[in-house]
Amino acid sequence: MDDIDSVDDMGWVFISDRQKGLVATFEEIMPNVEHRLCMRHIYSNFRAKFKGIELRELLWKAPAAGTVREFEFHMNKLKEMDPEEKAYNWLRKIDPTLWTRSHFSPRSRCDTLVNNMCELFNNNILEVRDKPIISMLEWIRRRVMHRIQIKKERMEKYTVEICPNIVKDLDALKVQSRNGFATYCGDRKFEVDCGDTIHIVDLEERKCSCRMWDLTGIPCKRAVSSIFVQREKPEDYVHPYYSKQHYLVAYNLMMHPVPGQHDWVETGLPAVAPPLCRKQPWRPPKMRKKGIDEPINPVRVSRQHRFIVCARCLQKGHNQRSCKGLVHPKSKLFKPTRSSQQQPFLAATATTIASSTPATATATTYQVT
Question: Measuring CA to CA, which of 81, 87, 274, 336 is 20 to 30 A from 27?
Fold first, then answer.
């Protein structure tokens, strides 16, 4: 709490997985802070109890809805798909302010539903996770120190006033806005017909009835259609959060270099001893535990944009190094056993002997006593 100062003044938004007790802890310690649950973890728990592709699609459509009416529409569809209403009741027990955009506050200008940022960080420190704590922290410090400086230098050379990723999103929205027909109503308000839905855009308040402009700070495709009718640029309606100036403010501070351990100041306190723990058998795992819906080895594509085919079992998605299947008879790695090599010879020999043996030959039986 002391490291991030007052969370109420900074407008913090925390997103976490579904660990027991976190929701109650946030309400007790930081009651005025917005808290969200990672939709990926909710889906993992949901999929373990309720099966079906239809339920899965409706589950992801409900949190992606921007308005309460749209959210209730998808929830009612899920209720119809589940006659016993077990999945519906299971989701209703979760507070919608924790997992759906329709109940998010526009204060943060962020509509993210998953905490993939944490997963990316864990993936970056994968090579040092098995090192001692001081060595790992020093590696992270150098990596962050270098990253801050690189980001700052690249943005200083950038000539556009909006961040590059936002420019790409706007270019895609400009293409999507062709399907919307905006009608001017006065006072800079528009009625936008998208074919299946009609929304109201207010350029003065910078709002749209779909709430996506409010949540992200970026004009939605309906707002872009209205802006084009006014012969203006959508870039002028992007929130200042995404400007080059605010980006440089975020990377203005620098992490100062730290001397080696031999120059560290001695405090006179006893050295920190490692924790008393029992070493577990086998090597410690490096890879994270995959979710219930994640394949162990998904199908990958090579540089030639072709599927990787195992030379051992001739199956797609892996190579022969990690293959655990049987060798396919048509594979180049297939080596017939001795019995399979002799089987054609024995069959031919048996045929020759049978043809050369007289039909009147009798068998002799010997009894061992």
Answer: 87
Q: Dmax of the chain from CA atoms?
A: 116
The answer to whether 114 and 38 are in contact (CB under 8 A) is yes
Q: Considering only CA atoms, which of 121, 118, 122, 114 is closest in space to residue 38?
A: 114
Residues in the chain, how many? 369
Q: How far apart are CA 92 and CA 76, in angstroms?
A: 11
**φ, ψ at 166 (rounded to 5°):** -70, -35
pLDDT digits (tens, 9 = 90+) for 147-185: 999 999 999 999 999 999 999 999 999 999 988 899 999
Alpha-carbon distance of 73 to 70, in angstroms, equals 5
* Cα distance between residue 251 and residue 339, in whole Å: 71
Q: Residue 366 above 60 pLDDT?
A: no
Rounded CA separation 364/286 (Å):
69
Are 27 and 34 in contact by the 8 Å Cβ rule? The answer is no
pLDDT higher than threshold 80 for residue 62: yes
